[in-house]
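To whoever is covering the structure queue this week,

Two jobs came back overnight. Logging them here so there's a record in the thread.

Job A:
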Amino acid sequence: MPKFGCMPFVRLTIADPDIAVDVRSALARDLSALLESGLGKEYEHTVVHIDLVPADRWYVAGVHPGEGTGAHLEVSITAGTNTPEEKAAFISDAHELLGRRLGVLPAAVYVALYELDGRSYGYNGITQAARKNLDPAGSD
């Protein structure tokens, strides 16, 4: 059974419907590895959903970026499982990773960590709060 707080859900929106499958796969692997190394999440329980949207639907300051691939990274984690320093480092490292995999990024690329209450967030039908109670020593 996965430990409490170790099962993130990742949603990456990319403003380019033609991103190659190998790039998408590399992003999924790299993001999962970054969550493991930076935030202590379990690689094997990390879900990554990549949503490709047409570039003409991406706006920064009300206009289409002249160059670069728009991206928005959202990660759901259990509240209280990481320090402010860990989260800041993850956001910085994730932004660098997006640039490395996607190339030039527009001026506004967001990385959001959504910290969800363990009583309202679950995995395979068990809330994170219940999971913590099943194995209190397994919390991260």
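Job B:
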Amino acid sequence: MKDAATIIANDREKIVQTVCDLIRIKSVKSAEMPGKPFGEGVNQALEYMLQEAENIGFKTENVDGYAGHVDYGDGEETVGILVHLDVVPEGEDWVHPPFGGEIHENKIYGRGAIDNKGPAVASLYALKAIKEMGVETKRKIRIIFGTDEESGWKDLEYYFQHYPKPDLGFSPDASFPVIHGEKGIQIFNLLYTIQQDEQPIQLVRIKGGNASNMVADRCEVELSMAENIKQMLGNDLEEFIKKTGYDLELEPAGENMVIKAKGISAHGSRPEKGENAISHLLLFLAQCPGLNESLKKFVTFYEEKIGVEVNGQSIGCGFEDDLSGKLVFNVGKIEMNQHQVTLSVNTRSPITVKAECVFEGVKKELKATGVQLEIEENIDPLYVPVEDELVTQLMEVYRAETGDIKSQPITIGGGTYARALPKAVAFGALFPGQEELAHQKNECIEINDLIKMTLIYAKAIKALVSKK
């Protein structure tokens, strides 16, 4: 009988090709269509993955376009592997096409390579290895392909109305070795209405960022003003750039002027890894004389309560605990509709801190500012003790396959599907010390790492479900 390593080595080309093909599907959430709740691209990715599973011998189920699954084995309990096929918007300034699925220097480039299409394919081929080895199971194994992880988890909400939750499992959507705790996630908007007045500089529009869980790498504002103000604005901007080093530029737009800010994108759970273009632009506006009074009040609020902080200390939610560290605060998007400006915020609260404390802390700091809080969503934290058998078994597999005995189970600010199950953890797919490129330009996955994680997942599945 072949072992897992041999089976996976023989499947290497097919694994790589499947990841490349999947990346070429632009599965960014878009307008709902009949039978396609998250749009055409996301549905195409789901159908592609289920067809690939059928091609290698599995029966599949498509649950009304919300999610799909693949099963193997039997048992009273079910082990779930939860992956997702949707991706965040691509952003700009890629070296290689974000939906090209191109291979360069033994890396597959593209949005979703590591988050989460590469690991999804690895999980499928890990299960194929288990099937070909004929592993006798004491538990059923089910891979669930989600489609709305990056937006609101409406996929799993629908799926679990139709199918029971697996009893335990993992999600290969973070990093190795084992993520046994995840902070709570709060998604909310800060709303403010701009009133026109007689000041020399008026706001025409403002737009920046792509999603609350991404550090904004672009932001621009269009301002109307008298001709004699334009030179002064340019001089002020020049001085501000010298002082801060921020990447800002001024250009005409008809009779108006546009200021563009360029930052560096990063995952919203690690905003310190990026540079927020929204913050840079609003901090400049806070220095501008002659600004519309209500706009001035808003940008002053931003300067005083948010600024470039990433832990929420000035806006009333700077919480911290020993288990998971400091709260993380990210402004991911700004837009304007009519006269209302909306800031989209994503916070990651410490495991022991309740979401109500976060919201109440923010509300307290909003008093007398004219800024309103609009709560969108709260996702509870995850915690599995390090001594739990699930954690210890996965750690044993990881150490045996990598030789890494130093790395320990950790907690993170990121949120994975693991928290959707009664008992689950995140397990991979980024290896210790590797650069985090999820939600960033030039996202990629090393082909050797892709194959290595496939083997780790096969061994993990066997450890969790095998009778022997």
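Note for Job B: The first helix runs from residue 4 to 10.

Please reply-all if you pick these up so we don't duplicate work.
Q.
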